[in-house]
Specification:
Alpha-Beta Plaits, 2 domains, PAC, single chain, about 25% strand, Rev_trsase/Diguanyl_cyclase, 5-stranded antiparallel β-sheet, alpha+beta, 5-stranded mixed β-sheet
């Protein structure tokens, strides 16, 4: 027993019962010969208002319009089936993310006869993807930030230092470093406890971050109670001024330190240095030099800045 094929009305009923929106465009006239009635529920534009490809193009978000039209026209002219994601404007001024899946129908001679396809609402998927991307960006930011103090971490410094070094070498601008250590911090922790020690680290970091105030300046926690300031396009005098400003800002906080060997409040020792990198210079050697200056400051009695070799 054979059954007769369903008539056109059955196919149309099937198409119009899906959430995907079917459509067809005549290639010669660029006119819609059909678009599913679901389009009105999704975008608010009446089914009868979809007359030509211009109606389609004008209802694409202006930021997506040109690239989407150019891509679809080029693929269609080449006779290539394709997909395009774009924001379609709704009748009330909002937008919906659409995925258009396009099939090119050819004449017997191979020329393009029409385009048929389906529009799918992918707004929920796009929103989920955007949320994932946002979370990834937030995690990336967190991965470069010290969780205790809120300033950049060692990883961030290790990433930016060679970049700024290369810029300084290319431009001939000076690059400065300040390496900072909190004086007698072990004694502070032993006396006040680690909870108070963590708060102390946060307040010191805040002072240093405020002192290195330009957008390109970087304050990073180097490890333990040690911090580093990366100061691009900063000469020796300016770097010394930044270090002095940081010390003053910290002094203004008046953080008590009963077990300090240099006073009754938290102080720091600093090593400062500046270089215009040449082809023979090494960033790690320069960093070691500034670290040595820090220990010179500590050896000389702490609570001071050392910016020269002894």
């Amino acid at each position: 027993m054979t059954s007769s094929p369903p008539d056109a009305s059955v196919y149309r009923t099937l198409l119009e019962s899906t959430r995907a929106i079917p459509w067809q465009i005549d290639w010669a006239t660029m006119q819609f010969t059909y678009i599913g009635p679901q389009i009105e529920e999704l975008l608010g534009w009446k089914q009868s208002s979809w007359l030509s490809v211009n109606d389609w193009a004008e209802r694409i978000h202006e930021e997506d319009r040109q690239k989407t039209v150019d891509f679809c026209v080029a693929q269609s002219q080449s006779g290539v089936d394709h997909e395009a994601d774009y924001r379609a404007l709704t009748n009330d001024g909002d937008y919906v993310w659409i995925r258009d899946v396009v099939h090119v129908v050819r004449n017997a001679d191979g020329s393009v006869a029409s385009l048929v396809g389906f529009m799918f609402d992918i707004t929920a998927r796009k929103q989920a993807e955007d949320k994932i991307l946002q979370l990834q960006r937030e995690l990336e930011v967190l991965s470069y930030r010290d969780s205790l103090t809120g300033v950049a971490n060692r990883r961030m410094f290790d990433t930016l230092y060679p970049v700024e070094w290369a810029k300084a070498r290319a431009t001939g601008e000076p690059l400065s470093l300040v390496v900072i250590d909190i004086d007698y911090f072990k004694q502070y922790n032993d006396h006040y406890g680690h909870v108070q020690g963590d708060e102390c680290l946060r307040r010191v970091a805040q002072s240093l971050d405020t002192g290195a105030s330009r957008s390109r300046d970087l304050c990073a926690r180097f490890g333990g109670e040690e911090f580093v300031l990366l100061l691009p396009a900063t000469d020796e005098a300016a770097a010394r001024n930044v270090a002095e400003r940081c010390r003053k800002l910290l002094a203004q906080k008046e953080i008590p330190h009963a077990r300090s060997g240099v006073g009754r409040q938290i102080t720091t020792s600093m090593g400062v240095g500046t270089i215009v990198p040449g082809s023979q210079d090494d960033p790690s050697v320069f960093l070691d030099r500034i670290d040595r200056r820090l220990y010179q400051a500590k050896s000389a009695g702490r609570d001071r800045i050392c910016d020269t070799e002894t």
